[in-house]
Amino acid sequence: MSTLSDFPISKRWPAQHPERIQLYSLNTPNGVKASIMLEETGLPYEAHLVDITENESHTPEFLALNPNGKIPAIIDPQGPDGQALALFESGAILMYLAEKSGRFLPAEPQARWATVQWVMFQMGGLGPMFGQLGFFHKFAGKDYEDKRPLQRYVAESKRLLGVLDTQLQGQDWIVGNDYTIADIATLGWVRNLVTFYEARALVEFDRYTQVAAWLERGLARPAVRRGLEIPSKG
């Protein structure tokens, strides 16, 4: 496939601006990684709401773009060598957009790989654990006699917050004093933990003073505030 029109998803969610990056997403903690990054870089894009509560990410058109049926996903009509490029997995999208824009992923190898490892920390640890905690605390936990699943995810979430708190000692951002895709990957999940999942007291969030200050700095960025609302169900 080499042009936007070759992708089935472009029929279900038609592009008004086919020359721009097409974002298929919802403003979940994973979805906002892509929208915040696009807002931060200023790359031209068009957002399409994929309503996961209506199972739209499992339609044939979306599955043709991401067989895993998860948001976000993008198509860049101006991809490498002038060919349209489709990508899913939020971490891969962040790294691609960083490469394309030349921003938020250091060129110097030591800092570059430090950034990548903290993106992987979010992808493999913090996101999945916070998500399970939120599920058992806000949604399923009330229906289970056995409290051990919730206790397990509370304990692990606290441990991960402690790791992040230690990393942030003496610096503004996760990888030193430069804001990177490691911060963009993590902001939405930490925010969700204490807002949508209503787990602030449960994980004793205010003990992690470095994380709390970092979250406040991140949420003060105009592009982050915009990205957190894109695309929204309203």
TrEMBL record:
PROSITE patterns (alphabetical): GST_CTER, GST_NTER
Keyword Iron-sulfur: no
Domain GST N-terminal: from-to ranges: 18-105
InterPro entries hit by this protein: Glutathione-S-Trfase_C-like, Glutathione-S-Trfase_C_sf, Glutathione_S-Trfase, Glutathione_S-Trfase_N, GST_C, Thioredoxin-like_sf
GO molecular function: transferase activity
Gene3D superfamilies documented for this protein: 1.20.1050.10, Glutaredoxin
Annotated SUPFAM superfamilies: GST C-terminal domain-like, Thioredoxin-like
Keyword Transferase assigned: yes
Keywords annotated in UniProt: Transferase
Pfam families: GST_C (PF00043), GST_N_2 (PF13409)
CDD domains in the cross-refs: GST_C_Ure2p_like, GST_N_Ure2p_like
GST C-terminal domain location: 108-234
PANTHER family found in the cross-reference section: DISULFIDE-BOND OXIDOREDUCTASE YFCG (PTHR44051:SF19), GLUTATHIONE S-TRANSFERASE-RELATED (PTHR44051)
Protein name: Glutathione S-transferase
Organism of origin: Pseudoxanthomonas composti
